[in-house]
User: Which sequence fits this backbone?
């Protein structure tokens, strides 16, 4: 199968017009988690290359910022058209490179299309404010200008959608972009950039260096983070990575948008629709083999419904289909690599030591020793102890009982991460308490659904060790621009603010 995957990947890339030198003969081996074997070898850049890349982006910025925003939106519209035309190709590459089941690979590309549509409309709505002045014959306004070069560092689990969230907004805001994709997913980056180049060719008047890709590891990413000409760094990954990025960007007074860890929880109340809850929990906890930042990792179940819901969940975990994401109808594909599987096993061992009862979690032989498939694990825990407070990027769901909603909310909020959360309830009082200022402390709080499956229209991001960043919809565009306040005196006198007098004659 490995040779077949490699041949298919090569054919898909060549079909997009990508020369073989970009994916054959390089020093970065790319493995498909479907089989665990090498499917391409990509040339990497070096940290020294970043200087020239940023210089080109900075030069391009001086021209791009002068292009009217609706015209910039036209480029993003063309990108959306290319994505629509090549959705099947790019979605297939996502499945082959990172192991997503077919519908999820296609769904990721749909997210890219959706954010392009959103950004095109936004290009005519980058609005400021008119503010009443305390001085006569004065007007105060706030306006937003392009920020500059935006560095985008993406992770393997959403190898192209997260780039699109940032790129579509940054481009309409008048910024230039440099993309450092995950070393585990460079092929989908090559394909996406090829589609953007097609859109640029149709657009016809974009400056050279408007959008660039940097292949490489931590050293390349570090050089991008440290370059003072990069106005904004948007980084998706672990909390450890984000803490390093935040400190280095802040040290040079740059700005960062961070999307980091998410130890997400759902609360099941006595009033919950348990059939709906069962389906939502299954997808939230096991979709993408537990490798979403919004994956459901902790489940608080009221003691009155625990013995009804949890046995049904255990049966789902025992029977869920685990297998190749491109063959058959498996719902759970592979973990990205050996390190992820070992981290999962370490967490399960720690859970047992802390008194947990583990259902599932064993390795499943699908495509040999080089690939790492695992049955999702449901772990009944005596409390929020041991590995429960940490995020393990694997399909592990920790389940705990609670007595009162206040107890459940305290458990949910009692971890360092604060990305996404949800409650299952039909009692309006329970729902409103969960959504109140005294409820969930996460950036996302859902009702009668799991914590994953965010839509483009709402800003995506979280609090605490999740980084505080926001991407995608709502007013997230402001993160890619700089604010300027203007005071305009259209009179002939010079009244001063706060009643200050300064008479010189």
Assistant:
């Amino acid at each position: 199968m490995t040779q077949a995957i490699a041949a298919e990947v090569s054919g898909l890339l060549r079909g997009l017009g990508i020369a073989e030198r970009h994916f054959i003969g390089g020093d970065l081996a790319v493995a498909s988690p479907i089989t665990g074997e090498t499917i391409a070898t990509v040339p990497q850049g070096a940290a020294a290359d970043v200087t020239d890349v940023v210089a080109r982006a900075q030069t391009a910025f001086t021209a791009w910022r002068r292009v009217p925003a609706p015209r910039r939106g036209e480029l993003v519209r063309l990108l959306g058209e290319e994505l629509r035309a090549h959705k099947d190709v790019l979605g297939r590459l996502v499945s082959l490179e990172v192991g997503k089941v077919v519908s999820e690979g296609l769904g990721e590309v749909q997210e890219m299309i959706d954010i392009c549509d959103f950004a095109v409309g936004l290009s005519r709505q980058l609005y400021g404010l008119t503010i009443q002045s305390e001085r006569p014959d004065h007007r105060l306004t706030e306006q937003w200008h392009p920020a500059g070069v935006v560095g985008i560092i993406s992770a393997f689990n959403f190898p192209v959608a997260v780039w699109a969230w940032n790129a579509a907004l940054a481009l309409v805001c008048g910024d230039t972009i440099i993309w450092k994709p995950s070393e585990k997913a460079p092929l989908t980056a090559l394909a996406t950039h090829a589609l953007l180049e097609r859109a640029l060719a149709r657009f016809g008047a974009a400056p050279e260096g408007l959008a660039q890709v940097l292949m490489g590891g931590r050293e390349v990413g570090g050089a991008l983070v440290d370059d003072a000409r990069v106005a904004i760094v948007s980084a998706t990954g672990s909390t450890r990575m984000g803490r390093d990025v935040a400190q280095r960007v802040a040290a040079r007074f740059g700005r960062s948008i961070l999307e980091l860890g998410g130890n997400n929880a759902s609360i099941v109340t006595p009033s919950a629709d348990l059939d709906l809850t069962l389906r939502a929990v299954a997808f939230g906890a096991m979709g993408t083999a537990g490798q979403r930042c919004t994956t459901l990792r902790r489940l608080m179940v009221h003691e009155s419904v625990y013995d009804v819901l949890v046995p049904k969940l255990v049966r789902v975990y025992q029977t869920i289909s685990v297998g190749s994401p491109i063959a058959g109808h498996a719902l759970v594909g592979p973990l990205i690599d050996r390190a992820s599987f070992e981290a999962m096993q370490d967490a399960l061992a720690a859970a047992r030591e802390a008194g947990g009862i583990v259902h599932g979690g064993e390795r499943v032989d699908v495509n040999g020793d080089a690939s790492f498939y695992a049955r999702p694990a449901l772990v009944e825990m005596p409390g929020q102890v041991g590995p429960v407070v940490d995020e393990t990027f694997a399909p592990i769901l920790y389940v705990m009982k609670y007595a009162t909603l206040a107890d459940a909310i305290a458990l949910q909020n009692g971890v360092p991460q604060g990305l996404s959360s949800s409650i299952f309830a039909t009692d309006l009082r329970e729902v409103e308490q969960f959504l109140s200022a005294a409820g969930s402390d996460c950036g996302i709080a859902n009702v009668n659904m799991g914590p994953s499956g965010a839509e483009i229209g709402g800003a995506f991001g979280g609090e605490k060790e999740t980084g505080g960043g926001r991407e995608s919809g709502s007013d997230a565009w402001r993160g890619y621009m700089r604010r300027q306040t203007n005071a305009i005196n259209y009179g002939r006198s010079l009244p001063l603010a706060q009643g200050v007098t300064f008479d010189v004659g």
